[in-house]
Amino acid sequence: MITSSKIHLPDFSLSPHIDQVGVEERAARFTTRSIKKETKLNGLKLVLNMIDLTTLEGKDTEGKVKQLCYKAQHLHDAYPGLPTVAAVCVYPSMVKTAKKAVEGSGIKIASVATAFPSGQSTRTVKISDTKYAVAQGADEIDMVISRGKFHEGEYNFVFDEIAAVKEACGEARLKVILETGELGTFDKVRRASDIAMYAGADFIKTSTGKIQPAATMPVTLVMLEAIRDFYYKTGKMIGMKPAGGISKSKLALRYLVMLKETLGEDWMNNEWFRFGASSLANDVLMQIVKEKTGVYQAANYFSID
Amino acid sequence: MPVVTKKKAAAKKNVIKLKFDTNWSYAPAPESKSAASINSQYDLFINGGWQKPSSKKYFNTINPATEETLSEVADASETDVNKAVTAARNAYEKYWKKIPAKERGKYIFRIARMIQEKARELAIIETLDGGKPIRESRDFDVPTAANHFFYYAGWADKLEYAFPNRRTEPLGVAGQIIPWNFPLLMAAWKIAPALATGNTVVLKPAETTPLTALKLAEIIQESDLPPGVVNIITGAGATGAAMVNHPDINKIVFTGSTEVGKIIQRAIAGTNKKVTLELGGKAANIIFEDAPIDQAVEGVINGIYFNQGHVCCAGSRLYVQESIVKEVIRKLKDRIETLIVGDPLDKNTDIGAINSQQQLETIHKYLKLGKQEGAEMYESSCRLPSKGFWCRPTMFTNVAQSSRIAQEEIFGPVLSILTFRTDDEVIEKANNSPYGLSAGVWTDKGSKIFNMTKRMRAGVIWANTFNKFDPTSPFGGYKESGFGREGGLHGLSAYVNLIG
């Protein structure tokens, strides 16, 4: 681990500016890539393998989580040779159940923490929330930043909080959710990305999935470019997780195109890129089966969880 | 962890590199040639029909990506030019200046719609004949061409609002000579406003890219436009010269090189022909340290590599403020690696073939010159096809203002990068060129944009974007980039006399 003392901390108020028109145009350009045949099939399998299969509901039960964990390992057994998803993402109270359910499969357990989704609580609560999830067996922690403090210009507060949560994570990898839908501008998304990476994030993530808009291609591109600049400055790779709003294979493939042409080969795996999604997997499965059989099957052929 | 330490050391030495040659690569996605029909031979489109050239001579037009012959087209001699001008004159006197303006508008709308209907075929032919990527001909050339017809169709019966309190009359017969970089689009730029204002037309496409103009002739024939209102003849320089020197042409409109523009100027001196010239350029694209850098880099890439750099307003002179020059060059190098060079018909191709052997030789001459001048050359690592005319996207760093690669128009995918320190310095350097067609400014500061645009001598200045075109917006140059404006209201005034 690189300690922050070894990295020169920039003035976050001077984070690069983003031109909205330009970034939206660039993001749209990725969507014109034509993805066909084996490229499509390989891309779809890669997408499956990058999914953080998620359930974050007040009504989550052990029963629901167990079923989701089974699905994570057996996406569509009628089609042999499919990968598993990357991780299952749940609330801290469900970590233990989930961890047990995926034992031996290589699937990670990610847990949201830090008073998810609003983050409106004290640091003590957030730290203990994190420690609890880790103690229950979470491999990854998805924290939220304090958007209120960020809007107040309290960048040091936001930075210190992330650093403190990172410390509480121990060996668990930390994903920092910026909740871009609440930040308002691309300039602020870029600034929040910089703060999170310098404060110790292993991943930066767009959204909780509870706020609209969630992940979009332009906002993800701004974050990928922040990751690229950080990598050039420090040599440290940071992962990216767009979450919320990606439910179709076509869109997921476009994200892969964007990833390939922005960060390249080293990021094209589930160690460094994830999709936070609940319904994406089935659409991808439907497409994969269609590639093999030439026809679309009805949604009822694919288990809902 | 040792891995991270190693990477940190690498960062210090600045050898960190992103790998864009990924395992997940794009399978070929070629557009089908079968959607386009190309005749094996084309005659001259005169007086609403197809006529054999009086010389009986034809010349080949090839696909620059494969060097295969696509078709042979007629070589129009002086006699043929004369026939075309006579047809245009008769059509002008008999129908076109007499019919109600809204009827003119109907014909132009019809042509616009027919271009849209045949968009796919036109895009494929444009790509086959000129070498440009199908993505560009499909998403830019053809739709923008249709938009020009739509835009000027709307003006046809509203000229009294375009020129309040004045009456307009058409000039008569317009002789239009267009270049090979945007063959269909340039034909649209020229024909649409001429027709809308009541003029008739003799148009000559470039000899390396005549096919979409001939397809447009088929559309015009099908549209029932009165015979002779638009005549399209093919040929090389001699055909163009015969048009320029023809006594019964009232207006010459030319887009092409400054060298030929000067010849045209000399030829028409002393005659009462009117003229609009849209010539070369060496656009300054300026990035300030406060710019949105990733978007600026993207704009620079689009500015110089769009259409293989065969663009008169290409941003070929990049000025970067010294504090950010390393970062900008690094980002440009990364971006160049992700440009896909190859089969222009493939939907994923970003950079297609160079338009002709001759143009490729010109580009190579400048690449050699740049190295001799001591600039550092960097090119993409992409592989090039063995047949056809190809040039990797290339950039020169350490270029001086006095280098010829910073002064002369290369008209290829070659970027010259220069540096500056202050606003005044860069304005002076940007203006220090015989050309003045376009320029770009990248800064987050609005007041700086206005200061720059006010003081820079260029016909079009883009702020935080580049190479944006719209039929409503006038386009044209300062200094040796030509005079007169095309597009928008200004484009109408090039084809009318204002009276009363």
Overview of this structure, please?
The complex is a heterodimer of chains A (305) and B (500). In chain A, 45% of the residues lie in helices and 10% in strands. Chain A has 11 helices and 8 strands. In chain A, strands 7-6-5-4-3-2-1-8 form an 8-stranded parallel sheet. In chain A, strand 2, helix 4 and strand 3 form a beta-alpha-beta unit. In chain B, 40% of the residues lie in helices and 18% in strands. In chain B, a hairpin with a 4-residue loop joins strand 4 (58-63) and strand 5 (68-74).
Largest sheet of chain B: 7 strands, mixed
Number of domains of chain B: 2
User: Please, what is the oligomeric state?
Assistant: heterodimer
CATH C-level name of chain A: Alpha Beta
What fold name goes in the CATH topology slot of the largest domain in chain B? Aldehyde Dehydrogenase, Chain A, domain 1
Q: Helix/strand-derived class of chain A?
A: alpha/beta
Q: What is the β-strand count of chain B?
A: 22
CATH class wording of the largest domain in chain B:
Alpha Beta
The assigned CATH architecture of the largest domain in chain B is 3-Layer(aba) Sandwich
- Can you list the strand order of the major beta sheet of chain A? 7-6-5-4-3-2-1-8
Across the major sheet of chain B, the strand order is 14-15-16-13-12-18-19
Stretches of chain B where pLDDT falls below 50 for ≥5 residues?
A: 1-5
Global geometry of chain B: globular
Strand count of chain A? 8
Helix-strand topology string of chain A: HHEHEHEHEHHEHEHEHEH
Strand content of chain B: 15-25%
The CA-CA distance between the termini of chain B, in Å, is: 85 Å
Distance between the termini of chain A: 37 Å
